[in-house]
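A brief tutorial aside. Many learners find it easier to grasp structure tokens once they have seen a single protein encoded end to end. The record that follows does exactly this for 4-hydroxy-tetrahydrodipicolinate synthase. Read the sequence first, then the structure, and try to relate runs of similar tokens to stretches of the chain.
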Amino acid sequence: MTSTGTTSQRPFGRTLCAMITPFTAAGDIDLDGARELAAWLVAEGCDGLVLNGTTGESPTTTDTEKAELVAAVRDAVGDRASLVAGVGTADTRHTVELALAAGKAGADGVLVVAPYYSKPPQEAVEAHFRAVADASGVPVMLYDIPGRTGTRIESETMIRLAGHPRIVAVKDCSYDFLGTQKVLAHTDLAYYAGCDEHVLALSAVGAAGCVSTVANAVPGHIAAILDAFDAGDTAGATERQLRATPLIEAMMGAGLPGTVTAKALLARLGRPAGPVRAPLLPAGREAADGLWARYEALTAG
């Protein structure tokens, strides 16, 4: 079973932020803003950044923008944080192309979601991941989020894929603790909690860390949960996780996408964010005020 003690067991670090993609007021990608935001997140405790993921609005950024973002953030953070680039699409060939481009742009790894919409059976899901891993020049993090893709990466499929030398990690948004524990018990895959409410819970069963959307707003607090856990202070870790729960609920469980809520908070904080791209819409005033109240309650303590 994977423990949480060494760098090799945390191939992409421990506290990863699923970073938003900043845009200008005109809706163009804001590379200077991305550099500034990335540098702040790392300074505040994130040792890894996931770019071009769900929170990074990957469905509405171009292939060129994706590569430019990776290159810009690499320039900003150097070797102070790992960079994992989202490359998942519904098309295996396109995913391979994006994985190769991400590696060339400076990514340390790629995040590959299960193919969506077409709902391929498990044999096809496994073949998709193997094709991408075979072609990629960097390690692969599988992304299990059936609520968005419509397709689960079943535990048995994960266990088989763990034998591939480039498949090293999983971002877990499956909401299946039993399935997750089964894979942890039978493989050396590094699991990262992809749902902020599971940061501490997954650590307790051997996860390597988290890929956090809430860390866009409170990177230091998310890092502190895992700091306490690693130090053996489980009571302190629990207290920090529970104190974050109202903000987690407001950002991730109140009906608005995490991209929308993260950008609303970053805008209030004066950090680079900008608008969301259609079909997303910005948070309304009432929602933004509610988010800010939860943020202030957490950070005032």
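Self-check: The two ends are 36 Å apart (CA to CA). If you spotted this yourself, you are ready for the next section.
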